[in-house]
Amino acid sequence: MSRPNPIPVPLLALALAACGDDGGSTVVDAGPADMGMVAPPDSGVVATCPIAENNPSCQQSMDCLAVGEDFSQAPNCEGFCPGFSAKMCLTGQCQTPATIEANEPITLNVDVGGLVNDISFLARMAIDAETAGGASIGCAEVMANPKGFFQEPCFNITDVRTTGTSGFSGTVFPLPFSRIQADRKVIFVVYGFADDDTMVDPLGISCTEVDVPPAGSQGMTQQVGANNMTRIL
Hints:
Elements: H1 9-19, H2 31-34, E1 88-90, E2 93-95, E3 106-111, E4 121-128, H3 139-144, E5 157-164, E6 172-177, E7 185-193, E8 204-211, E9 222-225, E10 230-231
Parallel strand pairs: 3-9
Antiparallel strand pairs: 1-2, 3-6, 4-5, 4-7, 7-8, 8-10
């Protein structure tokens, strides 16, 4: 009997490779470069203040005011409260977002708790949650420096108002906001003072983050439960 001719080794290796050993497959991750993904033209880098890589046209909201124009100022609080403007610097570009309708204010219900007998005047302000450099901020940044956080020029402060507490009863004070930007996240900060003659050293603070709805979307006043006012030590 004649013996079969042996299969040459190279051909045997090719046959085994074609059949596979267990029917499985190996997937190779091509990575972003092989998928045709490219970096965006913008650097995408955000910071509290605008950076050169984003080619900013403004460094802070003050740069967005017209020649000769100045920030608005809340009465009786010039010694403590910052100026404010509806014109904002967002990621290095001047913008004036739409505001909520005047007949659809957001009412912030602030519980002053044990400070009710100590305070007789309130200052409330609205700060956009996006800084001039595109960074996001919240109450954590506010509470880390409760008396001076707003001194950062790259924060966009869009409204500041003052009011007495004589017309309120109980410990929950309803505070309406109607001059705030719509469809954005806004930080509401409320300070309590002993009286309007000493509005330089607040006794308490409340901070609340709110997602403001688009203009004209409510049809009524929105009631928001604010974080309780805490004593500033």
